[in-house]
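Re: weekly structure request thread

Next one in the queue (278 aa):
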Amino acid sequence: MMGMSIWSFLAYSSLLASFWIEGLVVEVSPERGTVTVSHREIEGVMPAMAMPLKVRDRAMLRGLRPGMLVEVELVKQGGGQDVRRIRVREADNSIEADGRKVLLERPKEAVAVGQPVAGVPLKDHRGADVRLDQFAGKVVAVQFLYTRCPMPEVCPRLAATFAALQRRFAARMGADLVLLSVTLDPRYDSVEELSRYARIWRAGQGWRFLTGSEESIRFTAASFGMVYWPEEGVITHTSTIGLIGRDGRLSAVVEGLSFTARQLGDLIEIELRKQGNR
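Done, posted below.
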């Protein structure tokens, strides 16, 4: 339902002239003065969809990038719509320490959006050598998890998200889209253990679970701004999904867990439409 007009739905609703939508930015086009937001369902008004929004005040587009979670206030303006405000929802990358929240600093090695993503030696769950910079011409989504994660709302949810993407893009997996799940627990998550985990999630040829030396894992995680450490038998970590474009450059970063598999899929769909180098 990408690109559907909001007002075709509003015609059947009794909403006020001003309301908010929440969603994930999937495309920003300053030259056209638009931002496309993949938003959740608005009950009784419209289903979840990726919707292009015209922004009259183009200054509001400054600093917006794909992967950001936003809240957008829409107002009915004559026969159309206008964006009154855009608020960016920052991911809560903080921890509790001594009764107060401490903000975690991004690693200095974190790659900026638009910059090339370097590769270091890793191995997938089939024992094949893998580097993140070997997938030129393909779109690559990268997430971080570990198989012993005890919290179903974190690592298993991340794996389930990639499983949903594998179903959505079944015809493009491997040839055009690659999903990489990188372990944060390389001491335990051997090739054999990741192979078992991959079978649980029915990972096909285009979805690879990666391990490697602790140095390689730490470098790869830091490249995407990940912070993690062992704590009382578990690994505490932030959550980041990185999207690498066909040109090998970081295209988008989605931080936190406040997104749906459909929203992440809409972001990937936009990236898949792009051809060649930027």
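Residues 105-273 form a domain with the Glutaredoxin fold (CATH 3.40.30.10). The first helix runs from residue 7 to 10.
Next request, please.
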